[in-house]
Amino acid sequence: MKFSLSLFFLFLSLIALPQGDNLNWVLTKLYQNSPSLYEMLIRYDNLPQSMSYTINNSTISTSKSMSTYEFVKTDNKKSALESMSTNIHEAGHMYGHQIYYLLNNNTSNNEDFGAIFANVDQGFYLGPKEEYWVSIPKTFIFPSSELVAQIPQNLRTFRFDTYINGTSSTQSHGIVGLMDEFHAYYLGSQCNFDLLPAYKELDPSYFLSTWIGNSKSEITAYYEFDFFIKEYLLYAMKKRPDTYNYLKNDPKFVFIYNEIRNKYGALIAAYEKTIKLNTKSGVYKSADNFYEPDYSVLIQQLKLPIYNQIKVDFNLK
Q1: Which of 47, 138, 197, 200 has an alpha carbon 20 to 30 Å from 253's alpha carbon atom?
Q2: How far apart are CA 97 and CA 36, in angstroms?
Q3: What are φ and ψ of residue 289, in 5° steps?
Q4: Eight-class DSSP state of 118
Q5: Residue ranges per domain, the chain?
Q6: What are phi and psi of 124, to 5 degrees?
Q7: What is the DSSP string of 8-67?
Q8: Per-residue model confidence as pLDDT tens for the chain (317 residues)
Q9: Is 315 left (phi over 0), alpha (psi -120 to 50) or beta?
Q10: Residue by residue, what is the 3-state secondary structure of 219-252?
């Protein structure tokens, strides 16, 4: 894989850090095994603390609200390794907030960018050459809490209280907030998946069980957010048809929704395949063993025909 020259020299700077530094160690492993996510961290790290642009006599500003490695626990290599996926998750949020500033710092997009005050905007990093953003008018956004009455008790999964009935950005940003979380959990899952060789290096005998234990919650999050987003769209179809029609006809939204969902789904397939390849014959019993309990409920729910029209309208596979 090719890297930019600046990325190469930034990696060389890591080597200069003191030997035994746990942050240095885990960043080296990230560079070696997950270069795309390493580059996201470097891009975020290289951003100025604040940015502002003046467009049509209006000044638009943003600032970095977390340090690049804020969520890495550096007590030892194991804690640094196991916390890196959380750090990537949070950095994905933070870098995503900056993407529309970076993508729109040119005259060709100023007209769209100038609408930021009336829209909910969010950027999504899926690779060095895959940076996107969506901009949805606030009139088409409703809080995720409107779904509470629609979701029965048996489907109120681990993350229900935080993202459907809580006070996160999924209230003020609605489906864009849900997409932002879907994206961040994908990045965290990808990080942990890619770092499997580092788990094996630290503990050759029990690396697989440790890796699964640290992966399964974020992997299960795929099914939770696939469910939450479909429920949001189902509610919109029934009670907010203006929102539903806008979203299904917004090519950027449909494209990014599919990109995140497809990449996350492919990652899950690779996760299961990796477990099978690293497990002795006869030990691998069921995919259920490698997810949180919510998986068993949601995998059946998501097969129901109530979502068929959504799959058609949003080109979901």
Answers
A1: 47
A2: 18
A3: -70, -15
A4: G
A5: 5-313
A6: -140, 125
A7: HHHHHHHHTSPTT-HHHHHHHHHHHH-HHHHHHHHHHHHS-SEEEEEETTEEEEEE--S-
A8: 444 544 554 555 554 444 449 999 999 999 999 999 999 999 999 988 877 666 666 666 777 889 999 999 999 999 999 999 999 999 999 999 888 777 765 434 444 544 556 899 899 999 999 999 999 999 999 999 999 999 999 999 999 999 999 888 999 999 999 999 999 999 999 999 999 999 999 998 889 989 999 999 999 999 999 999 999 999 999 999 999 999 999 999 999 999 999 999 999 999 999 998 887 655 455 555 789 999 999 999 999 999 999 999 999 98
A9: left
A10: HHHHHHHHHHHHHHHHHHHHHCHHHHHHHHCCHH
| Structure tokens belonging to residue 172 | 């003020």
- The pTM score is 0.89
Structure tokens at 303: 């097969």
> Is residue 94 within 8 Å of 64, Cβ to Cβ?
yes
294/312 Cα distance (integer angstroms): 26
Q: Which amino acid is at 271?
A: Y
Are 50 and 62 a contacting pair, CB within 8 Å? yes
Give the Cα separation of 169 and 163 in Å (integer): 8
What's the Cα-to-Cα distance from 202 to each of 35, 88, 211, rounded to whole Å? 20, 20, 11
Residue in the block written with tokens 């998501």: 302
DSSP one-letter code for 76: S
Contacts 24+ apart (CB under 8 A), 22-27: 22/74, 22/75, 22/76, 22/77, 22/79, 22/80, 23/69, 23/72, 23/74, 23/80, 25/77, 25/80, 26/72, 26/77, 26/80, 26/81, 26/84, 26/198, 27/69
Which two tokens mark 290?
């490698």
